[in-house]
Write a structure and sequence with these properties.
Strand 5 and strand 6 form a beta hairpin. By secondary structure, the protein is an all-beta fold. 0% of the residues lie in helices and 48% in strands.
Length: 123
């Protein structure tokens, strides 16, 4: 059973929007820090955004700040990434991850990962 399942990726023109969802099958989902990372071909997986558990704060990479919005619905055990004003450089596979601690941007600190969803932004 996959614990994290992403959806919502696709092909979009530059300037467009997409909303990614990550459905989690995690006990005590509300306490997990949930993050989004992305990986473009030939590059390392990089932090995009995270949101703390128990009503914690949201954090963003500088490259997506003011364009992306992370949110969570603990009742639905789902985390979202609203992506606006998309650019070709946002093209990547986007991964959802769960972290039982409070670290938000260190990939190694995340305990669970989804399989990813592809986002392609055309110019």
């Amino acid at each position: 059973q996959e614990l994290l399942v992403e959806s919502g990726g696709g092909l979009v023109q530059a300037g467009g929007s997409l909303r990614l969802s990550c459905a989690a099958s995690l006990r005590s989902f509300s306490v997990f820090t949930m993050g989004w990372f992305r990986q473009a071909p030939g590059e390392e997986r990089a932090f995009v955004a995270a949101i703390g558990g128990n009503g914690g704060s949201a954090y963003y990479a500088d490259s997506v700040k003011d364009r992306f919005l992370i949110s969570r619905d603990d009742a639905k055990t789902t985390v979202y990434l609203q992506m606006n004003s998309l650019k070709p450089e946002d093209t990547a596979k986007y991964y959802c991850a769960a972290n039982f601690g409070s670290s938000y941007n260190r990939r190694a600190m995340y305990d669970y990962w989804g399989q990813g969803t592809q986002v392609t932004v055309s110019s």
